Amino acid sequence: MKTLIKILLLTSVFLLALFSCKKDQLEIGKAEDPCDCANEVSADFDIIERHIQLAGSEMIITDHVLQNSASKEVRFRAKAEDAEYTWYIGADIENDRETFTNFGNQWVGSTIPITLVVEKEPNLICFPNDDGYDSITKTFNIYDVCHEPYLLEGTFRMASENSTDSFDIDIEFIEYAPQYDCYSADITNFDGEGSVCSGNYFSGTKSYRYFQVGGGPAGDCLSIGAFKAWHHLNGKIEMSYYYFKDSDPNQEVNKHIFGRKIN
After folding, report:
1. Closest to 189 in 3D by CA, of 211, 140, 156, 218
2. What is the Cα–Cα distance from 46 to 49, expressed in whole angstroms?
3. Could you say which residues form the signal peptide (predicted)?
4. pLDDT tens digit string along 167-196?
5. Are 115 and 137 in contact (CB under 8 A)?
6. How far apart are CA 225 and CA 245, in angstroms?
7. Which helix (H) or strand (E) holds 2?
8. How far is residue 105 from each of residues 76, 110, 131, 145, 231, measured CA to CA in Å?
């Protein structure tokens, strides 16, 4: 009996030590790979459209451009930092990380090629075959401001961030007198209760992936102000605005919502 007890005791001690060892092993985290966040030398860059020719106006990363003024500023920004840059923009050659040019109305209907060459000391530990040199050419189209279909016209399913309580907003561009232009839009259900803000009371401004309504609430738009909408490159829709509940200025509701285009 004493022998059996000793055997059981030794077995228990052995199993306890074994599982304790395994537990310790599980708690030892995998060493972080220093190459996880490393990148090969890349000449990738962003095309950025200035919304209107005013300092401080919205800058939108885009793939095409709307010509909404006599001179449209388009910027080009390399993603690689601390490198040597050579931009080829038509006959112009630039060497800063970020550069820009202005396109006049004569460029509407054109496809513009932009080439960037990047040279940088490569990370040979993580990428032994990287020669530190890369080049890329991107193209973008310059469209008339009334180009259709417009990305920010249609039905958009929106919700506050981290919320599943969604509602649909409709944006429909309509030519109202006396302007008869493509800058006015009816905005429907901005409050989730079916209210309509008629484009007859305001004029917006358009970029390829951005729409903004200027001015304050007026007329049947007394309930909405500072409306801004983005159609990001990843397909995500973003809107920012405020409205007065029951048209009461003392009941201001601010919205910053996200979603997708469904129609």
Report:
1. 156
2. 10
3. 1-22
4. 999 999 999 888 888 988 999 999 999 988
5. yes
6. 12
7. helix 2-27
8. 20, 10, 41, 10, 24
- By three-state DSSP, how is residue 194 classified? coil
Using CA atoms, how far residue 76 sits from 58, 99, 198, 250, in Å, is: 15, 5, 36, 44
Pick the CATH number of 45-144 from 3.40.50.20, 3.40.1410.10, 3.20.20.80, 2.60.40.10: 2.60.40.10
* pLDDT tens sequence across 195-240: 888 887 777 889 999 999 865 555 556 657 789 999 999 999 999 9
Which structure tokens are listed for 262? 């469904």
Residue with tokens 């931009």: 87
Q: How far apart are the first and last CA of the chain?
A: 81
CA–CA distance, 212 with 141 (Å, rounded to integer): 21
User: Are the C-beta atoms of 157 and 148 separated by less than 8 Å?
Assistant: no
Confirm if 228 and 212 have CB atoms less than 8 A apart.
yes
What single-letter amino acid sits at 104?
G
Q: Which residues pair with 89 in a beta bridge?
A: 92
* Cβ 174 vs Cβ 214: under 8 Å: no
Residues 106, 142, 235: CA angle, nearest 5 degrees: 165
Q: Which residue has the tokens 């050579």?
A: 86
Q: Tell me the C-alpha distance between 41 and 11, whole Å.
A: 58
pTM, two decimal places: 0.83
